[in-house]
# Entry
Amino acid sequence: MILLILPIGIWAQNDSIKTPKNEINFGINFMTHGEFCGGGLPKGAEENKSRFLLGRMRIIADYKRQGLQVHAVTQNLAVWGMKGNQAFNLYEGWAKISSKNGFFAQVGRVALSYDDERIIGTNDFATAALSHDLMRVGYEGHGHQAHAIFCYNQNESNIYNSTYYDDGAQYYKTMQALWYHYDFPKFPMGVSLLFMNVGMQAGNNDPMAWDYKTNPARTEHQQMFGGYINYHPKHLTLEASYYRQTGKLVDISKNSTKIRAWMASMKATITPTDRYGLVLGYDHLSGDDFIPVPYGGNIGLIRHDVIKGFSPLYGSRTKFYGILDFFYTSAYINGFTPGLQNAFIGAFGNPVNKLSCSLTYHYMATATALTKLNRTLGHSIEIGLDYRFSKDITLSVGYTQMFGTETMSRLKQDETNKNAQWGWFSLVISPTVFSTKW
# Structure
């Protein structure tokens, strides 16, 4: 509470010194997205689900004056031909109070983006994207940025347990995060540190359930901590990150297991000219040593006590592990997480004005050794094109071909994973309709 009152008091003092200028911006973000895929669908999926067109409309309103900003974004999603809406919600809605001293306080629904978005990002390519209900306080100035985030989620109504939470904008009960970033003066490098504590609901809140007493409703917590470094001299950008996960992981059956996982990444982007560049890197996400057994166990199988498979939590996944997002949107057999090794190399450029293109190759393998199976999951090739018709109209087109292995098909229990393809396009039109200052 003190952290919240402090920036409010500082802002109030500054506000009395100078009459603030007011600014209002009103805009529309319209996206038409279409895609098709062959193979790689979850087991039992209908073929017609692999081809569709989707429209997303966002209405954006923003008000600013000295020391105050209010921002609201409504969002509507609908598949072409669908009766009604797939989703209509408030994507963002927040107020931010700030001071000249660099302190600020923010409250509401916020789309968070930190560092390279590996752990906390908007994941905007997923069309619905991510946002969080929170209070955020912090300081930004003189190369330092320090943020503290506090989230608490509650269902509208519950019959048996008023604190139990199992559905909503984000699938957690509580979340706290501390983020610190420092940009070195006169040296092209920035360093970030992140700590998160995420509380997930576990157990059974139905008093009529058979395991209500032995597996009661509760909140289990897991922790994520690590750092990110960005070194960017002329014509070169080097990035590296390392994170660890501890605490307890709650699975789909609402049961919890200890988690001890980690990940590390390295990436180099080389831009010898303003028009062309190369990128290469490697990601390693830890994995389980063997297939986990569902709660209660199966005959002849042993349930292990520790999960070693790393979870990217709320990051923008298509940005890192292949745009097909093949490894974290559809589960392996019994929820098995063998981890992931992702080695990639690519080229990008602007051959003509307004046109950007990229070509990337990914080598995918499990992080852990498998019995009687090779670690190699497959190879993927990604092609991307972006054409900017004007400052507010962009067309993006992409195609991915995945060449899976026997390991991939065995772990996914689907032969179609050996040769999966995916093509997509997105037309984004985002004009500023009205803007004024007084």
Summary: The first strand starts at residue 23 and ends at 38. Residues 2-156+171-205+214-437 form a domain with the Porin fold (CATH 2.40.160.100). The chain has one domain: 2-156+171-205+214-437.
